Amino acid sequence: MADTPNKSDSPKVTQQAALTTSSGRIWLVIGGILAVISLGFLWQMREIGQACPFIEPAPPGCGDGRLTSAPLIGIAIIVLLYAAMVVVRFTVERLRVRLAVMAILTALIPITFVICGGIVILAQQPPIPLPVEPLK
Questions:
Q1: How far apart are CA 83 and CA 62, in angstroms?
Q2: What is the DSSP letter of 37?
Q3: What is the pLDDT of residue 23?
Q4: Side-chain half-sphere of 20: how many Cα atoms within 13 Å?
Q5: Treating both helix axes as pointing N-terminal to C-terminal, what angle do 95-122 and 69-91 enclose, rounded to 10 degrees?
Q6: By C-alpha distance, which of 103, 77, 75 is closest to 89?
Q7: pLDDT, tens digit, for every residue of 76-119?
Q8: Which residues are CB-neighbours of 128 under 8 A, at least 6 positions away?
Q9: How far is the C-alpha of 32 from the C-alpha of 30, rounded, in Å?
Q10: For residue range 15-39, what is the model confidence (pLDDT) as tens digits?
Q11: What is the pLDDT of residue 28?
């Protein structure tokens, strides 16, 4: 009895079952889970404002500071990426091309989340600018 190598046992990434013989359902499931998690966090990031509204009395120049465009753009991109995954799953006939495109689209979901979430975080300003004293 000769052992024939299974494609899924290959160390090469391009020969794994998820990219060669899968129906594409696993990519839809993984992409859906990533999309739901990302959308949940981005939806809540719409409400992130500066910390200064919690300071009484608020210092001058301390406004609302909400940055709603980045989370909303991220939400729209993630929804479009998942919709593209569904379209690719049911329209592309070549199996390897379909699975490769779905893998790329799945990877773009968390990348989009990190970029949009990073923009929100980096847009935050400290509540009160700290004075910088010259070194003596």
A1: 40
A2: H
A3: 80
A4: 11
A5: 180
A6: 103
A7: 999 999 999 999 999 988 888 888 899 999 999 999 999 998 88
A8: 52, 55, 59, 62
A9: 5
A10: 565 566 678 889 899 999 999 999 9
A11: 92
DSSP 79-123: HHHHHHHHHHHHH---HHHHHHHHHHHHHHHHHHHHHHHHHHHHT
Looking at beta carbons, which pairs linking 116-123 to residues 24 or more positions away fall under 8 Å? 116/42, 116/45, 116/70, 116/71, 116/73, 116/74, 116/77, 117/41, 117/42, 117/45, 117/71, 117/74, 119/67, 119/70, 120/45, 120/48, 120/67, 120/70, 120/71, 123/65, 123/67, 123/70
Instruction: Work out the number of other CB atoms within 10 angstroms of the CB of residue 67.
Output: 19
Identify whether the C-beta of residue 31 lies closer than 8 Å to the C-beta of residue 18. no
Structural contact between residues 85 and 31, judged by C-beta atoms closer than 8 angstroms: yes
CB atoms under 10 Å from CB of 103, counted, come to 21
The answer to whether 50 touches 62, Cβ cutoff 8 Å, is yes
4's tokens: 């024939």
